[in-house]
Amino acid sequence: LNNKVLSRGYLLGLNFLLNEQPDRAIDVFIRLVELDEDTIETHLALGYLFRRRGEVDRAIRIHQNLIARPSLDGEQRSNAILELGRDYLAAGLFDRAESLFKQAMGAPAHRADALRHLLDVYQQEKEWESAITTARRLQGLGGERLGPLMAQFACELAELKIAANAEMGEVRQLIKRAFGFDSQSVRASLLLGDIEQQEGRWRAALKAYQR
């Protein structure tokens, strides 16, 4: 009987989700958690709904309680860790999110998702070298062409060097690196054109802008 009630509850909650009624879905999943505290999927669904509704603190508590359970198998623990990382990311707690996404990478099934979230963290934190490394690893898993994105990160580093009045040789190396990621990078071409113009190499500047 208990399993039948749970099954009906899942279907009802999913129906509310599909009909974009998250508040009613939350009510259903809260009742299911009260009925069977060991149901991992219900906790994950409830945490997701709280995070989606902006109640990140409640989502964090649910996922922290899940991770504290010694009965979780490796897949369930990794899933809960990934969800908690998403909670921290939504809350702007980037250091905690980064740590959890690195943990979640240990599970092959969650590696790509964890890398995508890490990439999001590094972009928001403006950690461009880490973003390049992460994008390279994600691209290495196959299926995603991230060269243009990595070129943008290299250009960000070049602009930081320019703002810090670094040697132009260092800036040129970063622009060259950007072209290595994406030979058609518009931003890298514009940066190179600006440098050539500032240094009085008009033909080289024109060539870069034409490119």
Explain what you see.
With 211 residues, this protein is mainly alpha-helical. The chain is 79% helix and 0% strand. It is built from 12 helices and no strands. The longest helix has 18 residues. The radius of gyration is 23 Å and the shape is elongated.
What are the defining features of this structure?
79% helix, 12 helices, 211 residues, disordered N terminus, elongated, mainly alpha
Structure in a nutshell:
It is built from twelve helices and no strands. It has helices spanning 2-18, 22-35, 40-52, 56-67, 74-91, 94-104, 111-125, 128-140, 147-163, 168-181, 186-198, 202-210. The longest helix is centred in the middle third of the chain and has 18 residues, at 74-91.
Q: What is the tally of helical segments?
A: 12
What structural class results from the helix and strand content?
mainly alpha
Tell me, what's the shape? elongated
Would you count the extended β strands for me?
A: 0
Parts with pLDDT < 50 across at least 5 consecutive residues: 1-6
Q: What is the helix content?
A: over 70%
> How much is the average pLDDT?
86
Gyration radius (Cα, Å) is: 23 Å
N-to-C SSE series? HHHHHHHHHHHH
For the largest beta-sheet, the strand count, sense and barrel status come to: none
End-to-end separation: 70 Å
Proportion of residues in extended strands: under 5%
Topology:
Blueprint: H1 2-18, H2 22-35, H3 40-52, H4 56-67, H5 74-91, H6 94-104, H7 111-125, H8 128-140, H9 147-163, H10 168-181, H11 186-198, H12 202-210
Helix pairs in contact: 1-2, 2-3, 3-4, 3-5, 4-5, 5-6, 5-7, 6-7, 7-8, 8-9, 9-10, 10-11, 11-12
